[in-house]
């Protein structure tokens, strides 16, 4: 005879399996199913952006996204708050939402970079109006859509998404401040000096 804890665990596993089946069976709208893969889409876009611009600032931006994600995951292990029961297949903790934190970091850093930093030569062909104000507004809207989707998909509660937004925004502010004040730039260019010559010539 299963104990109440064992029955609860079995029900949780069945709920996750049912959620996976619903997602695979297209019982969710197409838009939500695409947003469920937002981490892969954003990561791939960032990777190609860094390669295309060959900019040290872009690489720093990408490194910040990884740092924000890791920081959010560490907070999850500290806070150990469960995700909504029976509405998600994910088994990790839910507070704060890593997706919400990372995309909020993107929105914060991009908005600050577009409005406060000079345009990098690799982006000289991009219309100025796209860089500012279109890019910051577009990124902010994208961020909000992804954050809302985490609730609609059942992966997080409103509080967990709010926690992710707070973490990502604060991390973005701090990461940008470290770059714009020159501290991170000095370290980054110092590291570049130790790279092989073919890599140094690639960075601009």
Automatic annotation (TrEMBL):
GO terms for molecular function: sphingosine-1-phosphate phosphatase activity. It holds the Pfam family PAP2. The keyword Transmembrane applies. The chain crosses the membrane at residues 47-72, 93-115, 130-149, 161-181. Residues 58-176 form the Phosphatidic acid phosphatase type 2/haloperoxidase domain. InterPro entries: PAP2/HPO, PAP2/HPO_sf. Keywords: Membrane, Transmembrane, Transmembrane helix. The keyword Aminoacyl-tRNA synthetase does not apply. This is Phosphatidic acid phosphatase type 2/haloperoxidase domain-containing protein. It comes from Serendipita vermifera MAFF 305830.
